Each structure stands twice: as C-alpha cells, then as structure tokens.
Request: fold
Amino acid sequence: MTTPIPQAVIDMVPVYPEMVVLIGASAILLIDMFLKEGQRSLTYLLSLATLLVAGVLSYNDYMTGHTVYTFNGMFVSDPMANLLKVFTYLTAGLTLVYSRQYADDRGMLSGNLGGEFYVLALFTVLGQMVMISGSNFLSVYLGVELMSLSLYALVALRRDNHKATEAAMKYFVLGALASGFLLYGISMLYGATGTLDIRGVSAMVAGGTVNKTVLIFGVVFLVAGLAFKLGAVPFHMWVPDVYEGSPTAVTLLLGGAPKIATFAICIRLLVEGLMPLAFDWQQMLMILAVLSLAIGNITAIAQTNLKRMLAYSTIAQMGFVLLGLLAGVAGTTDRTGASAAYSAAMYYVITYVLTTIGSFGMLMLLSRAGFEAETLADLKGLSKRNGWFAVVMSALMFSLAGVPPLMGFAAKFAVLTAVLSTGQIWLTVLAVMFSLIAAFYYLRVVKVMWFDEPADEAPIVVKADMSVALSLNAIAIVLLGVLPGPLLAACLKAMTITLNT
Reply:
C-alpha cells in the first residue's frame, strides 16, 4: 500500500505561471498551423497575452511575500524568483515587440517557419522560469537545457543564412560542453552528499562529514558551467561570434532574459547550496570578474561592429555582477550587508538587461529588408535623420557607460558601494578604472550619431508599437536612475526574504 503524498507537496498554485506559459506556447503552436500568411499578427498578440497573464500571476505571488516549496522541494516560489520572473516576462515581451518587423522582413515569420519564432521564444522563457525557481539540481538542469535547446534552434532559424548557421554550430558545440561541465559538477556533488536537493547539499556540506576534495572538484565544474552561461572570461569565446552571427532578434533573446535566469541559479547553487564552500568559489569568481572586466572592456574598444561591441560589453557587465556576488560572500558575517550586496547584483542584472534590449532594439529599428544596421557607420548622423531616436540611443549608451543620473550609474554605484563596504579597496579601484575605459567605446557611438554626417539617407520607418516601446524603455532608464529607490528596495526585500527563509 502506497503512502499518499501530502497536499502541500503537490501544491500546483506556485506553478500557475509556468503552466500558463506552457499551455500558451502549445496552444499558439497549434493555432499557428491554421493561420494564413497575413494572419501572423494573431500569433504575436497571443504570445504577448501569454506573457502578460504569467506576469500578473508572478507579480501577485511576489506581493504576498511568501516562500512556498512544491513537488517534493524541487520547485520554490519566493520573492526573488517572482520578481525576476516579472522582469523576464517584460524582457521577453519587449523583445517580441522590437523584433516583429525585423523578423517579418527576413522571412522568419512566414513560409515553413510560421510562428516558430514566437513559440520557441516562449519555451525559452519557460526554461528560464524553471531555472529561476529550481530548488533541486535536477530541476535547475532541466530548466537550463530547455532554455538552451530553444536558443540553439532560434539561432539556426534562418537556415539560408550561412552566418546564422555557423553561429548556431558554435553555440551548440560550446553550449553542450558547458552543459557537460555543469552536469559533471552536479554529479560530483551528488556523489559526495547523496542528495540533489540544494538545501540538503548545504546541510551536508555544513556538517563536515563529506569528502571535501570531491566537493571542490564539483564546485570547479559547476562554476565553469555557470561562467559559460554568463559569458564570463575565460568562457566567453562564444559570445561575440554568436551575437554577431545570429539574427539581431535572436541576439536580443540571447543577451537579455537568460542573464536574469543565470543570476538566479548562481544564487540558488552557490549562495543557498554551497555557502559553506564560499571561500573556494569566491576565489574563482574573483578571477572571473577581474578577467571579464579587463578583456571585455579592452577588446570592445577595437570593435567597429556594434553587435560584437555589445557582446564584449556584456562580458564586462557580467564582471560587475560577479563583483556583487563576491561582496555578498565577503559580507556573510553580516546578514544585512550580504543581502544588500546580493540585491545590488540583482539590480545590476535588471539594469543591464533593460538597457541592452533597448540597444539591440535600436539596431533592429534602423535595419530594414536587405539591410542590417550593425556597424558604427550605420549610426552616423542619426540625429539628423531622427532626433528623438538619437536621444533614445544616447540615453542607452550613457546608461551602459554609468553616466549619472541614468540607471546604469545607480547600478554601478550600488555594486561598488557593496564591494567597498567589504574592505576590498583595490577591487573597487580596478572596477572604476575599467569603467572609465568602457566610457570610450560607448561615447564613440554617441559621437558618430550627433557629429558625423549621415552615411545612409533612407527614411526610418517604424511601427507604432515599437516606437512607443523603445521610447518607454529609454524613459524608464532615466527615471529608474533618478529614482532608483523603489526598485532597489524591491530587490532588497526579495533577497532578504529569500536568503533568510
């Protein structure tokens, strides 16, 4: 006779957002089969509606402030997860809005491809949601693979484009290697502790009864896998090539929400699961952070292709995120300080994502059928062609450079304050120096927009939804820089409740 599972263990309420996205993606896939060539707008609207419903559910869960474990502890719904999911939906929704015309001009929404772009984007979001709420190594890995497999397919979506096909092969081969690292690290941790539950691993490691040598090897492989997903040096080699070779719409899906999900699993695996081994993985993160800041910023200076420049910018920005995680570890003796540092890193990730999707959105806005806007020369004289969009792009570049009073400055200031509070002055000075180097290549973009003569006289035609979304994106970057308090407070609340549960 089997023992009945307690109702609390199979509580379905926390997974309602995941169910909405799964059912929505499956339904859209079926509905799209019966749509004719000019009816793809329905697929687009249904995708946005799916994200909106999931966003309302996750926001409601965030407002309750409760932490709920379900599926025998494999899935957790807590404030950190729900807040990050809300921004994941927002990022994915903006991506769909920005990429609609771009994808349509390149045949990604017609013919045999149909609505696969939207369906795969939703499955990518679903994988990220599972990653964010995974409280078991197995569920985290399943989320990683669901996201990764969808992204592999998206990168290769334009099968007639040799650059996209090459990027897909590079991403697939190196992604499989990274997944192997992650899985091998998980297997070693499981072999040492006998459990896949993240809290269980933490308890076993803290007990001091497991083989530390095996644990350290497991942590090394785990950090390597996470560093690949973040695009941190020396696991960054895929980022510039894949960003450049992918259709810009897919590059946006690669460079946006996945960083939010990867940050979440860094917190889950390293902070919640392996904090007793913090001294060991802290040293690895420090090396990754310094190398990412150095190589990302210095290499970006030499780039004339904007997608490659933003790719190296991403590498450098992830160095700042790692600094926030380091500051949290250094402040573990002070719970308040640790929560503040982790919330600063969380705020930085959100800032990076909102700014980056706007930047790639501008590249898609300037592109048209038969023309890709992806070099510095393509932005020359933008202020003379359309003054408002030159202002929008300037705000985004200034934010990435960390110029006050924009959101990027508030994010950098929060992280540097957290690092400085731990007494690591040399690390703070180093980060500031590399930020000054980064300002050069961001301001170069502003210079060519405002002071160079236009290289392209073609009129800029943009749909109303994209124009409004890009404008609101830039305005949000300014407002959240002038008034960073509410979002910082939300991040602090989410991180405090999550880490103290």
Q: What stands out?
A: The mean pLDDT is 87. Residues 388 and 434 are 30 Å apart (CA to CA). Residues 162-193 form the longest helix (32 residues). The two ends are 35 Å apart (CA to CA).
